[in-house]
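Progress against Task 2.4 (sequence-to-structure conversion) is shown through the following example record, which the project officer requested during the mid-term review.
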Amino acid sequence: MIQVLDQIDPRVQEEVREFIAHLPADRGACAEHDPRWLIVLRQSLRHQPLLVVARGSSSGPVRGCLPLALVQSRLFGRFLVSLPYLNRAGVAAEDDAAAQAILERAVELAHQHRVRYLELRHHEYLLTHPALAHQRADKVRMVLELPSDAETLWRGFDAKVRNQVRKGEKAGLTIRWGGVELLDAFYHVLAVNMRDLGTPVYPRRLFASILTLFTGQAELAVVEYQGQPAAGALLVHQPELAGGLTQVPSASSLRRLNATNANMWMYHQLLVRAIERGSRAFDFGRSSQDSGTYRFKKQWGAQPRPTVWQYHLRCGEAAILRPDQPRYQRKIQTWKRLPVWLTRLAGPAIVRGIP
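Structure tokens generated for the chain above:
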């Protein structure tokens, strides 16, 4: 039996979390399947959540799930994604029969909502189905297996990394940990950095929602130099899910303070924090192989893990799946020249429509 829920009550949330906690990663399970992410996306980005659940009967236990968000804007169109903002989700199921049933219902939803495509951000569990004729495998997740203590972590870094961290110490950097009380400082750094990259910034309320719904698991780190924010990161600790994981969905630093090594110093603090919180792995997020961000993450010892996004393309051409289309490059260069206050005003309305 397949259910499609657009309202996720606490009972269903607990059922899905319990199911994911005991499902192996090679069956698709990951921390991003926590239904609270759907609530975050609805509250902060106004995406319509759809949770597809497979059961043996109407009252039977969960056998599989797929969280979906309907992304729609006049500028970009309509998309069905699992899941926006996050690096992965996709189908999680205890057997192939449940997975195929979930997928077929998702394809029906894609046609029902007239989306351009259905995007499944799978990681270790890929599906074989005629509807999934396209995929992207140009990026990998960078994951570091963590030791049990900070001293062992430190000894595992090469001399260059340790030297850069020490430079941050000598610069007098300090770090604050907290929640919504640090949101203004964190968001300032994020907005400046996103403008410099030519990327619209997510709304402030996205991070407020994460901090509220993931109380005790999500926290902000703000690095300060001479009393002013220099770098910041959002951490989500979920040691009870996915083998014990801390991930950093968003992190930024100010380019004008690169000489302080604030970014390197911060990431060392983030890794130590993850160990303190009981995590056994640290997810740095996705990067294109051999890119600058890939090399940055690899220097910490992070290893690439395949990340394949599968698609059901309902209309248009496969070229729309590529984010690096030439027609966007002029817009990116223009965005980099805008004042930060304007990007903070206009960015959230744009980025909410980008799948």
